[in-house]
Amino acid sequence: MFRYYCRLALMSMQRTPAITALMVAAIAVGIAVCTITLTVYHLMSANPIQDRNDVLYAVTLDSWDPERPWDESRPTLAPSELTYRDATAILAAGRADRTAIMRKAGFTLESSPAIKPFLVEARLTTGDFFPMFAVPFEYGGGWDRNADRDAPPVVVLSKKTNDTAFGGQNSVGKIIKLDSREYRVIGVLKNWEPTPKFYDLNNGHYDSIEDVYVPFALGARLQLQPSGNVNCWKPEGINGFAQFLNSECIWNQVWVELSAPQKLAQFQDYLNGYVMHEKSLGRFPRPLNNHLYTAKQWLDVNEVVAKDNRVLMGLAFMFLAVCVLNVIGLLLAKFLGLAKVTALRRALGASRRQLFEQHLVEVGMIGLTGGVLGLALAALGLLGLRRLYENYDRLTHLDLAVALLALAISVAAGAIAGIYPAWRVCRVPPSTYLRT
Amino acid sequence: MLEMQNVVKIYRTDLIETHALRDFNLRVAEGEFVAVTGPSGSGKTTFLNVAGLLEGFESGTYRLDGKNIGELDDDARSRTRNQKIGFIFQSFNLIPDLDVFDNIDVPLRYRGFSAIDRRRRIIRVLEMVGLASRAKHVPAQLSGGQQQRVAIARALAGEPRFLLADEPTGNLDSLMARQIMDLLEEINARGTTVVMVTHDPELAHRAHRNVHVMDGQVTDFLTLELSRGAGPLPAGLPAAAGRAAHGRPDPIIA
Amino acid sequence: MEIRPILSAMMRNRSGMVLVGLQIAITLAVAVNAAFIIQQRMEKIGRPSGVDAANLFYVASYGYSPGYDSKAALVNDMAVIRRMPGVVAASSINSLPMSGGGSSNTYQPSADPKAAKIPGNYFEISEDGLKSLGVKLVAGRNFKSDEMTYNGLDNFFPKQLMMSSTMARAVFGDDRAVGKLVYDGTGAVAEVIGVTEDMLGSWVDAKHPKNIVFHPVLQNGPRMTYVVRAEPGKRDEVMMAVEKTLRRPGAGRFIVWVRSQDHYTELSYRADHRMVVFLWTLIVLMVSVTALGVVGLATFLVNARRKQIGTRRAIGARRVDILRYFMIENGLLTIIGVAAGAALSFVFSYWLSNAFELPPLKLSFVLWGIMVLLVLGQIAVFIPARRAAAIPPAVATRTV
């Protein structure tokens, strides 16, 4: 019976080519617009560390100004970064399974005389960073806890940096100079593009990863100035790097790995205890406000999906609604126009339900055709977007999940559009249309 | 008041040329009740369209109420139809989405009457056809006979010079048909000219005279007395000619 | 004008009309709000920058050799650049306007710790800084060369500073700012020596983008940025010349980039541009689909009413009467649709302004939207209405 309905549907669609084309086009355009906005939204709101989401936590402490909250519009939010003092304290306490404290810096990199020196962005971090964030290595690996303590001049290169400096070869063991100091390469990453850059959202949610990674403790030893966001509230009169390290300025990011729920509670207790202790020393003038966020929560808190994209998503679905209304109208016109044929079928013995099913199959096919066409249009649209806006590059790939969702929506849209017209035409007694 | 002389109407398609009316001659005096009869394909529908100014014609003259119709443009024809002719159709042709009042209102609006004037006329014709209580009903709520009466009311509301009826009882049962014919006779008795196209000999019989159309031409005239069964027919004329609504008239029977 | 009977007929056979009416309503609500957002963004993008943006460019230099003498390099570079033809002025600077990156501090009108702390986006410039940016003084005086200091992590609050008019008003209200003292809360104090015209700062999306402060501080350290202002129309050639001149091998530093102000401005407003393009596309698509819906409905009605149209003609309607019937019917439908749409617009706007902190809709947009849709609706129905008017009266007597 289903195959029969399909055949009937095809014949019916061919009988009214103009109306069918209009309906397919309406659904296609609606689906295309929704797919494009869905794709961007989906990729924007993706959690690149989804697999490890339940064990990784971003740490925030509210060490901020007692007079003003960190974010006036969200007064209960703590700052997204920590002071050097607090970050190193958490690392030293070692209460988590793994701890990554980190911050940004900048260097000039020289590899060989043949290659001009070039500026690189650096991340100073502890060795746990690599296993915590499942960072993929092409060659070599990161450093261990001993290296965190001793801070040897070792470096991990990103794929892009390695390509530029060493032509993509295995450079483990080679020496490069960062700001004229020698560092030994111990690891080279594979292509890693976490989108968004969840572990540090302070400067651009969709920035590329850093070019080089070095042990955190080198920062203090070499007095490396931080790049990235530095925020200070306290009028402390900072003179010299040592005072800067000890100040209330926040410029460090802290992530921990807690592999079991009870460890989460324990770590929370530790944090609270630490802050209470610091309070007794005169720090942390604001009320206790420590938070541990999973990556997903961290993305939400930092409002990674731009408001604009949410608005566009809503508008896209309203557009789809208009397209569906359009198709309902066209279907009504078509089915009522062909009511005589339907009445004839009824006279020949088809039940109302069978006719209803037959019509639904037709609208489902129209929906599916519109959906497929819409996906093609969406792919074109995304290509165009990528041309127009380079830094949208990573947000404009047609994802399989989104494509399947779009097809499902198109069939559903067709079905929804068709229910009322199909019901209308099957309801009227056949004699009405068979009379001359 | 209606005079057609040598009217020719040709339908042309890519392949065929059909002479629907050839050398058509007809005269209808004011106050007459004329039945135009003939088999299907004889041209009586074409006559209706031409007489009702629904279509033009190729040659000949048509004078209606003194005016020469052939010279009128489309807008003038519409106005003439509006003012001078009242149509009654076989399938009533009421507008299904309007109630009875608004249906009758349609030609009056095109006429440009004021709201008060229109209202007065509508109530008057509704009373005339006996449907004043149904003013707010839609056609779907009325029987066939009632719908045709509304159509007649619509035709009368503008006080036309003549009523042009196309098989007015074709879609009605015999009881309703008789009621409609009674109504038409009554309207005619009050002075409105009625031209009725039909192929029912019983209906044709109720008219003053019959005009028989065949192959696009008027074939013979036979005037009956105003009341039925007035006496023997004049000698020399075909018997039962008034009943010869189908096929060829009977050969002259002495 | 047969409005009442047309309305009655519409009410009795509603479904097609309801569908198109809904489309019109949703389209109006979306289009009007989208147009409003577009206007907001265009206004934002069109804000005067306050600097001579068309003629500005920036140079980033990185001194990598050990013992790089950045102070001497600065003096040298400035001399070289200022000598070049087509250069109006040049200065070192800490960050770039409308670039997304910069520095800010809080400034208080008095030493009282409870005093209001006004956030200010500060730019470290030399005495040629204002001229280089193209920002004019409106009160007081510019920096003097003996007031310059070098930047560093040390206590950086200067002894003198200038502020933009907006900043001056934020800190001192209507009082004259020149000559007043401003505090940073650690006990450091600076004198306001000048007030400038307004300028857009580092962040175009900031809540107070025109709270600008100028510090008399020269850049110091391996990384240096210069702002250079070229003579009108000569920016590109001066950019190339400066880059070529500064890129000398053996200088112990390399030129990281030379970029125009426009480059940064365009990047900063890119998200807003994107939104404008998306919204325009959406408006056009939606209006088109709805217009097609109107055409489709009208065509359907003309076909379905064939007999009725013939009858109307038979009983006296002229062609123009039939045309008018459809135009009026469409007009009524559009009016009902836009009435619902107008209400929906405000509901939608209310939700948008709550959920996304967008300002509330202006009535003029709704009125314009209504007019546009009314006109478009009439245009859309015209061709089907004309075809209806061409239906011959003889259709009334046909029995098919």
Provide structural commentary:
- The complex is a heterotrimer of chains A (436), B (254) and C (400).
- Chain A is an alpha+beta fold and 436 residues long.
- Chain A has 15 helices and 11 strands.
- A 6-stranded mixed beta barrel of chain A has the order 3-4-9-6-8-7.
- In chain A, a hairpin with a 7-residue loop joins strand 3 and strand 4.
- The two termini of chain A are 31 Å apart.
- With 254 residues, chain B is α/β, with parallel strands linked by helices.
- In chain B, helix 3 (100-111) packs across helix 4 (115-129), helix 4 (115-129) packs across helix 5 and helix 5 runs parallel beside helix 6.
- Chain C folds into 2 domains: 3-46 and 270-397, no CATH class; 53-267, no CATH class.
- In chain C, 49% of the residues lie in helices and 18% in strands.
- The model of chain C has no long low-confidence stretch (mean pLDDT 90).
- Chains in contact: A-C, B-C.
- At the A-C interface, helix 2, strand 3 and helix 11 of A face helix 2, helix 8 and helix 10 of C.
- How helix-rich are the residues of chain A, as a percent range? 40-55%
Strand content of chain A: 5-15%
Radius of gyration of chain C: 33 Å
- Percentage of residues in DSSP E strands of chain C: 15-25%
Spans of chain A of 5+ residues with little confidence (pLDDT < 50)?
Answer: none
